[in-house]
């Protein structure tokens, strides 16, 4: 799933190419991705693009009328064309979900692979009308994400620190991958309870959150949309690297699996050398 660095880079990529152009056509290939009915996608046609921005992991293409707001979820992506194919968009089993064509012939597709379709597209008068956008927490690279604000959020509920980092209502934009990376750099167990963390721990973790996200954002800056996924994978230290060597200590990267996801960590760097039990098989070792 694309997270803050990739979504921000997609927003900048689209803004550079779409702002100032009018929307020539919008074609919906998979009606199930469309979560609103008024305004209609056709109400975007003829409107000029005035901005493309990010809200957490949501993208917001704003026109001088409605906004096209979407969440790529786990398997969605943006496919950019300097010249959009002339083939007619038809419903079917293709990954294509929605196509936007601009007045200069360029444009993009929203696509989604796999059978579990979670791509969500909204056409609204304001992005805040999307409930999940309205409920987003603080942006971790914003000025108001201070060490004091982070400590306040962490102290609000005693929970696993990985859950805190991933909760979009608390901190917007961090998902499974970057929470793994942040906790590895911070040398902290993903299942450490926030109530057990000292003020010094939280200050250090706050700094690592910003360090890891800024590093990833710098690595993705200026890259074409087609390269962002591979760039993200190459930059991962532990996430998605089960069985490989930890780049810090050389220990094997381990995994804890859940029903529909998994996390990766280094026992030497993060848990004092103690492996965490796979929750599918046994009770979690604290």
Automatic annotation (TrEMBL):
Keyword line: DNA damage, DNA repair, DNA-binding, Glycosidase, Hydrolase, Lyase, Metal-binding, Multifunctional enzyme, Zinc, Zinc-finger
Q: Which cofactors does this protein require?
A: Zn(2+)
Which terms under GO biological process does the entry name?
A: base-excision repair
Kindly give the InterPro entries that the UniProt entry links to this protein: FPG_cat, FPG_N, H2TH_FPG, Ribosomal_uS13-like_H2TH, Znf_DNA_glyclase/AP_lyase, Znf_FPG/IleRS
* Claim: Heme is one of the keywords in the record: no
Residues in Formamidopyrimidine-DNA glycosylase catalytic domain copies: 2-119
Q: Which GO terms describe its molecular function?
A: 8-oxo-7,8-dihydroguanine DNA N-glycosylase activity; damaged DNA binding; DNA-(apurinic or apyrimidinic site) endonuclease activity; lyase activity; zinc ion binding
Q: Does the keyword Kinase apply?
A: no
Do you know which PROSITE patterns this protein is assigned to? FPG_CAT, ZF_FPG_2
Spell out the CDD domains in the cross-references: BaFpgNei_N_1
In this protein, which residues make up the domain named FPG-type?
A: 237-271
Q: Which SMART domains match?
A: Fapy_DNA_glyco (SM00898), H2TH (SM01232)
Q: Which reaction does it catalyse?
A: Hydrolysis of DNA containing ring-opened 7-methylguanine residues, releasing 2,6-diamino-4-hydroxy-5-(N-methyl)formamidopyrimidine
Q: Which family does it belong to?
A: Belongs to the FPG family.
In its UniProt entry, what is this protein called?
Formamidopyrimidine-DNA glycosylase
